[in-house]
């Protein structure tokens, strides 16, 4: 076994990555701890793995996430020190949001800094994750009362690179609703500009026809007085009819117009995902007697915020699905039925759940912060809670327009098929591959 895969928190995206690497590598040994009591895993996993990892002269590469204190493990197991040590950051603790500043535990961020100093390669799942970590080291260390080390970011930076988290994108065609299948077909349908305009003018007479104003409401924008009132989804020089149905399709979409907007929230039930904001927004929609349904998915852990029980009681008439779905098939099926996926996160470095939902045809609404501007166009971002509420109000009033919108998000660049070669190169102990990958990553990071 030449590759040693170590995961101190074997659940969620951490588990997904280890499983993919194990399947791809084959020649590896996997050592894990269950995804429970995260804080205790971060404090004590090194001691556990000291005993759990069998000694072997064949190890060449050690891959682990930043939950593990790599410095402790290498000190406790000197035989692992000579391996190529890869540290993967799913998230960083230097900017983790806490409800009260005194609650921040210095040790978790400190452990991650130590691990970076010991590692040979430090991998981040997004440029936002990498840049926020490196730029926060000096400020974070000012918490120390005195004798603060300097220039640690300069020691760590040359080791760093961005390799996006790989998503295994399944074929969800069998789960897609009729209007999503129609929309998928329309995204591939191109005709001349003249024919596009004629079709739009014909459809404009229908009460279901979209207007520039309504489409701008969906994106939170308003047209300027001088802006020509052309169909918003006509595609550039090719005249692609991307977002508006042909007249023959309008009758078939009457049913979808009558269906209430289906909103999905597929995140961990924890404070850093800000469920408070999400449910407060839905309650405002309810007060305005707007028609909508909601599915609240995602994993739950030991301490579930009280807002979930309160919201379930107050939104009972709007709930379509509630709670974690152990079956991936069932989970994807719900995403395919939903219209809009919402993030209210205060702490997000990639967002697997959002991209999975987009792959299933959901219109994403994300904060204009964290990693989201790196992945999503401005049309899918909101800056304030008021903007989020306004966007959802418009969506509730015009659900058929959301269902016609052709998503401008390319999920394939985050797929395992796209990223597998990069991960394979990462796990090789060949220095020439390492040098090539580092050069390639530096060029991509500069262009981000």
From TrEMBL:
- Please give the catalytic activity noted in the UniProt record: queuosine(34) in tRNA(Asp) + GDP-alpha-D-mannose = O-4''-alpha-D-mannosylqueuosine(34) in tRNA(Asp) + GDP + H(+)
Q: Show the InterPro entries listed in the entry.
A: Glyco_trans_1 (IPR001296), GT-like_domain_containing_1 (IPR051862), QTMAN_N (IPR022701)
UniProt keyword list: Glycosyltransferase, Transferase
Gene Ontology MF annotations: tRNA-queuosine(34) beta-mannosyltransferase activity
Record domain Glycosyl transferase family: where = 263-378
What are the boundaries of the region Disordered? 211-252, 429-448
Reported EC number(s) for this entry are 2.4.1.110
BP GO annotations: central nervous system development
Protein name (database record): tRNA-queuosine alpha-mannosyltransferase
Q: Tell me what organism the protein belongs to.
A: Electrophorus electricus
Q: Which gene underlies this protein?
A: GTDC1
């Amino acid at each position: 076994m030449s590759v040693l895969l170590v995961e101190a928190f074997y659940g969620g995206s951490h588990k997904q990555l280890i499983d993919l690497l194990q399947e791809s590598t084959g020649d590896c040994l996997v050592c894990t701890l269950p995804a429970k009591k995260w804080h205790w895993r971060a404090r004590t996993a090194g001691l556990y793995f000291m005993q759990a990892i069998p000694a072997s002269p064949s190890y060449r590469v050690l891959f682990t996430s930043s939950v593990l204190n790599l410095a402790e493990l290498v000190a406790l197991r000197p035989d692992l020190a000579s391996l190529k040590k890869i540290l993967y950051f799913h998230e960083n603790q230097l900017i983790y949001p806490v409800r009260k500043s005194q609650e921040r535990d210095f040790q978790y961020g400190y452990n991650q800094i130590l691990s970076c100093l010991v590692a040979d390669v430090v991998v981040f799942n997004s440029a936002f994750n990498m840049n926020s970590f490196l730029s926060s080291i000096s400020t974070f260390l000012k918490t120390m009362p005195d004798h603060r080390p300097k220039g640690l970011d300069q020691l760590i930076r040359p080791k760093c690179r961005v390799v996006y988290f790989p998503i295994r994108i399944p074929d969800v065609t069998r789960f897609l609703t009729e209007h999503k299948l129609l929309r998928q077909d329309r995204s591939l349908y191109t005709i001349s500009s003249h024919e596009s305009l004629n079709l739009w003018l014909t459809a404009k007479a229908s009460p279901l026809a979209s207007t520039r104003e309504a489409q701008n409401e969906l994106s939170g924008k308003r047209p300027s007085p001088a802006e020509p009132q052309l169909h918003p989804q006509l595609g550039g020089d090719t005249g692609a009819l991307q977002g508006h149905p042909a007249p023959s399709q309008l009758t078939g979409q009457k049913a979808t117009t009558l269906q209430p907007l289906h909103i999905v929230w597929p995140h961990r039930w924890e404070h850093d995902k800000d469920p408070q904001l999400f449910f407060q927004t839905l309650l405002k929609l309810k007060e305005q007697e707007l028609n909508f349904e909601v599915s609240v998915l995602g994993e739950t852990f030991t301490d579930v915020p009280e807002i979930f029980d309160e919201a379930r009681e107050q939104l009972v008439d709007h709930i379509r699905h509630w709670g974690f779905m152990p079956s991936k098939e069932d989970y994807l099926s719900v995403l395919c039925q939903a219209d809009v996926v919402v993030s209210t996160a205060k702490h997000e470095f990639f967002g697997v759940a959002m991209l999975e939902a987009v792959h299933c045809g959901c219109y994403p609404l994300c904060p204009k912060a964290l990693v989201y501007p790196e992945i999503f166009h401005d049309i899918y971002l909101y800056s304030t809670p008021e903007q989020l509420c306004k966007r959802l109000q418009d969506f509730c009033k015009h659900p058929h327009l959301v269902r016609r919108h052709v998503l401008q998000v390319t999920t394939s660049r985050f797929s395992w098929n796209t990223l597998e070669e990069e991960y394979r190169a990462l796990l090789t102990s060949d220095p020439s591959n390492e040098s090539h990958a580092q050069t390639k990553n530096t060029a991509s990071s500069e262009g981000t």
